[in-house]
């Protein structure tokens, strides 16, 4: 009820037809919302007076007609963009640059999306927001875990004693839209990374990167395949950012098969849901039945989002997924996307207010809710081909595009922000086609055309359509969190540390993930994730052996060794710079991240083995996977992009992604909070 009151109180900032769609499932909630809307109008004079007295005039007071539009293009690379501007392909972005500002944008250390977007949101360095990688670790066991949020099961007291999930956001500090809201400025924030679970503030939000699937993973696909007829093997290990997959053998009888979708776990068992497929007589298509619905499948075409209800006893959970008939003849293969949380009936909170996701689903139809929704692991493992992955990526981009433009038209004042992931995902998977020296390079991308160039063209088209929606006085900011480079060779830091004597494994080492082979009593340094190296420090790690005095000299030794590391195949150095956390970060979380961030030269990145916390393998491994582009290298080599339709004061040098937060606050006349590390970029007044 308080959420309904909250949304109604800010209807002036978010208006338009269809606002009641989300409530159609409940007449009582709709009635309450209408009553609260009437009360909101009646109390408007009182609210204005309170806002004036408390300094929260914002959209209700002077300057309330101001609007900021922020378009985040994850992975937009300044070098590649300049090339497209020069040949006339990126006309809209070139026009924006000519009218206002086009600059490199310094990124965070390390140059990883959850880290950079957290600094964008908060205006502070990682030492103040506590996000250093996709993964953190439990200091008692040193087992890696998700860095952004913690999901734990707690039991309620009382007669029923039912289990419930407790979800907490691990990012520190507060996003600048919370500061805006405290001053009365309304914001709509869509799919910004590290916003799960959603925080309360004066506005609307839909969570982005690191939202899990219904199974609690960062994305786990399923491939159903005729038993005993497998062609290429499907790798099902967990991917570098948490994605995974599984192959399920099935039997066809007279062109029919039945199986079950695996859902969330309840105790030791998973909930599931039945489905069946009947192939056409010519095996060019099929009919799928799931959740009481029947849909036609054609080879190579995705089904629409299908709602699936998982059940075990009295417990149920709602999810959505898409099916792809990969092949029907001679081998039957059916791909199923990760089971996304149903936005209309979310098993975990997806939005603020909680019913905002249902509103969006009622208005636009079901949509991907998984944080890393584009199934890069499906392509890397062979479950998807290039064309199927690109189709999925474009479909997700279009879903987000529809939501964003609807939100933009309704957010008449305040801020409207959305982050689009398409460029990042396409460059990760198709940089091999741009780099002739990449181990996975192909002379032509065949049916896929030029995926990277096409993704940039779509991004340019998106920005052009946004520019058409601008009104006099609006501030448009287009930015990316980092650029991109080729990823030809993986560096197994744990293996290198072992060779140098700083990491020791147990005599019975089995090559398992998650640092399980490490002999902690004899280990001084270790690595996992995509950022760098951690010291096994006394007083921090439970079995730490390195004291503060030794830590200083040990870091210097490790840094010297890394800078001397060379690729035996090319005789080229591997590392550009090693960053010491004590010099790079400030704030209460400074010691929570890696002690050394390894800034690799172009072409190199932490290996897949190190990302999973493995020690076994070679120090250097050629990367022949489709995941061929990356940005986990020296931050100085992969800056992001900043564009604006208004001139910004850049006399102090290249701006940093932390500068966006105080700059937006300044646009609304709100002083930069003292804790923010970012600087205010003065904005030129709009032309009359």
Describe, in plain words, how this protein is organized in 3D.
The chain folds into 4 domains: 2-54, no CATH class; 68-131 and 171-211 and 371-484 and 638-688, Alkaline Phosphatase, subunit A, CATH 3.40.720.10; 216-345, no CATH class; 487-627, Gyrase A, domain 2, CATH 3.30.1360. By secondary structure, it is an alpha+beta fold. The model is unreliable at 1-38, 47-63 and 237-242 (pLDDT under 50). It contains 18 helices and 31 strands. The strands form 8 sheets. It has an 8-stranded mixed sheet with strand order 2-31-22-1-21-7-8-20, with helices on both faces. It has a 4-stranded mixed sheet with strand order 10-9-18-17.
